Amino acid sequence: MSTSFNYPDAVSIVEVGPRDGLQNESAPLATEDKVALVEGLVAAGLGYVETGSFVNPRWIPQMADSGDVFQQIKRAPDVTYAALTPNLKGFERAMEANASEVAVFAAASESFSQRNINCSIEESIARFLPVMEAAKTAGVRVRGYVSCVLGCPYEGQIEPPAVLAVSQALLDMGCYEVSLGDTIGTGTPGSMDRLLETLVPTLSARRLALHCHNSYGQALANILVGLQHGITRIDSSVAGLGGCPYAAGASGNVATEDVVYMLQGMGIDTGVNLDALIDVGRSCCKKLGRETQSAVAKARS
Ligand SMILES: CC(C)(COP(=O)([O-])OP(=O)([O-])OC[C@H]1O[C@@H](n2cnc3c(N)ncnc32)[C@H](O)[C@@H]1OP(=O)([O-])[O-])[C@@H](O)C(=O)NCCC(=O)NCCSC(=O)C[C@@](C)(O)CC(=O)[O-]
């Protein structure tokens, strides 16, 4: 592209549909259909799929069968099948299921932290310490999430220094990267730019990923700003599945199809076959009895 920005040649997509997407779908998806979804995403070229989570199943019943999903998928070489783990118990369950790597999740807002994981931000960091130690012993990489980086459903606007503090804490304890979650999708290119102006010089773009929900239709624009700041790891969810159980009104992540389409148009490689991906999203939406949230999939229907 002929612009004054130095866009990357390639971007890695972190597909979160089977976890972040399905955890908030009201219609349950059968275990075998989750397995087909994960395998379909990998066949479409996604090299990193967040496959499930090992949280309290009373809190998130949609993920109660994550162990079965991990056991039943036919694994492809060089693909990361990741799991979300809130504490040591979750980590142990993830290891039993042979997850390739795990993610811990904190928030930049105290109220969201309490609602989501029933503890303060500081307590959450303390809970992650034994996970980090166990992961180090097991040789397993740990990703970190920070929710509510551009807004909180309970506290409103969140200031960049609060995001910087918790992101720094996660990196200091050994997370290899922090994914910045615009959980309720209220961010705009303006607020994303301000956030990254604070974070990138201190933390470095190569240790940051973006996790944008599309509730206000800003996700692609926000991702573009992330690329301009040098970020090359983008979370997205096939068909824009999901939302957040602790953030009323939050829609799903930006649709993977839409991210791939935008990046292809910019000449940025993702390794994903867009047509195959659209088919996977369609098939999953049919089973869920819902419409795709991908503008690209709708336009190609
Ligand atoms: C964190 C806890 C467990 C604390 O929950 P708690 O109630 O404070 O935990 P506890 O340690 O007091 O234990 C209570 C019960 O939970 C059980 N328990 C405890 N841990 C586990 C576990 N790992 N697996 C299974 N069971 C577990 C434990 O065994 C016990 O069972 P009981 O004795 O009552 O029968 C709870 O709050 C929880 O599960 N929260 C899950 C929240 C969640 O999954 N939210 C959605 C994911 S985050 C997200 O979507 C945002 C993100 C990442 O996508 C980024 C963004 O968009 O912003």
From TrEMBL:
<dbReference type="InterPro" id="IPR000891">
    <property type="entry name" value="PYR_CT"/>
</dbReference>
<comment type="pathway">
    <text>Metabolic intermediate metabolism; (S)-3-hydroxy-3-methylglutaryl-CoA degradation; acetoacetate from (S)-3-hydroxy-3-methylglutaryl-CoA: step 1/1.</text>
</comment>
<dbReference type="InterPro" id="IPR043594">
    <property type="entry name" value="HMGL"/>
</dbReference>
<keyword id="KW-0479">Metal-binding</keyword>
<keyword id="KW-0456">Lyase</keyword>
<dbReference type="GO" id="GO:0046872">
    <property type="term" value="F:metal ion binding"/>
</dbReference>
<dbReference type="InterPro" id="IPR013785">
    <property type="entry name" value="Aldolase_TIM"/>
</dbReference>
<feature type="domain" description="Pyruvate carboxyltransferase">
    <location>
        <begin position="11"/>
        <end position="278"/>
    </location>
</feature>
<dbReference type="Pfam" id="PF00682">
    <property type="entry name" value="HMGL-like"/>
</dbReference>
<dbReference type="InterPro" id="IPR000138">
    <property type="entry name" value="HMG_CoA_lyase_AS"/>
</dbReference>
<dbReference type="GO" id="GO:0004419">
    <property type="term" value="F:hydroxymethylglutaryl-CoA lyase activity"/>
</dbReference>
<protein>
    <recommendedName>
        <fullName>hydroxymethylglutaryl-CoA lyase</fullName>
        <ecNumber>4.1.3.4</ecNumber>
    </recommendedName>
</protein>
<comment type="similarity">
    <text>Belongs to the HMG-CoA lyase family.</text>
</comment>
<dbReference type="GO" id="GO:0006552">
    <property type="term" value="P:L-leucine catabolic process"/>
</dbReference>
<dbReference type="GO" id="GO:0046951">
    <property type="term" value="P:ketone body biosynthetic process"/>
</dbReference>
